[in-house]
Design goal:
There is one protein chain. The protein is built from 12 helices and 8 strands. By secondary structure, the chain is α+β, with helices and mostly antiparallel strands. The chain has 2 domains: 78 residues, Orthogonal Bundle (434 Repressor (Amino-terminal Domain)), CATH 1.10.260; 168 residues, 2-Layer Sandwich (Endonuclease, Chain A). Strand 6 and strand 7 form a beta hairpin.
């Protein structure tokens, strides 16, 4: 089952609960809105995606019109912001990369947590890091410094660059060392673009989260992880330790 289908079924379950709380049968809900009786069961079962108009009518009929904006936000996250990678692979990743670049341009405060990769903006020279009016807060785990996902000589260059970039006034750079007590499991990386969008990527998809509750949750998660990180000279000590170990392994 795809992540898209799981999300659609979750929305259907929520709509079913809303209908039952209103003490309406599926047939009654359909009749009051002029729908075919099977439409309600298909939506609730995750076999049909509702429209925004459907959600507004559903909430209104169940006496919960105030929930319509939240339901519509869920739908927009589901349809508009969820992008399946297998579809992108047919046309290349340039469109997605361009969209992400535009999002970066519109963002004043960029927060990024990574548990596996060196943050993309810190891997290669990026002019956006030098723009006035922008601030960047990167938090990585020490594992990022030690995973061998590229040739050793390339990794040496990346680690050396991290030491340099950590001194920039527009960048706050933190490393969570192995010995740190973790406030929660660092399950996956993510980007916080101001407090408007959270960008999460996994093996099969990229998801832009725009619901206020999800954004607030990720802000709290980032703050907790950032609280376990080392900064400034302490962060550079962790990086240079990994740099020295890699150099020794290569000699």
């Amino acid at each position: 089952m795809s992540s898209f289908q799981r999300a659609r079924e979750a929305l259907g379950i929520r709509l079913r609960e809303l209908r039952r709380d209103a003490r309406l049968t599926g047939r009654q809900l359909a009749e009051r809105n002029g729908w075919h009786p099977s439409k309600v069961s298909k939506i609730e079962g995750g076999k049909q995606t509702p429209t925004e108009a459907d959600l507004e009518a559903w909430a209104s009929t169940c006496g919960q019109s105030d929930l319509a904006p939240e339901l519509i936000a869920s739908l927009r996250t589901l349809e508009s912001h969820y992008v399946e990678h297998r579809r992108l692979f047919h046309t290349g990743m340039s469109a997605q990369q361009q969209a992400f670049s535009e999002l970066e341009d519109q963002t004043v405060v960029v927060r990024n947590f990574e548990n596996v990769f060196v943050p993309g903006l810190l891997q290669t020279p990026e002019q956006i890091l030098y723009r006035s009016g922008k601030k960047f807060h990167f938090v990585i785990t020490e594992a990022v410094l030690r995973y061998r996902l590229c040739p050793p000589e390339v990794m040496l260059g990346q680690l050396d660059r991290l030491v340099t970039l950590s001194t920039m006034p527009t960048i706050r750079f933190g490393v969570i060392p192995f010995e740190a007590k973790l406030p929660l499991a660092p399950v996956h990386g993510f980007w916080l673009m101001d407090e408007r969008v959270v960008v999460v990527e996994n093996f099969t998809a990229s998801q832009n989260l725009t619901q206020a509750s999800e954004i607030s949750a990720y802000v709290r998660i980032f703050d907790q992880l950032a609280g376990a990180a080392r900064y400034e000279s302490d962060a550079r000590t962790v990086v240079t330790r990994a740099l020295a170990d890699l150099s020794t392994q290569m000699s």
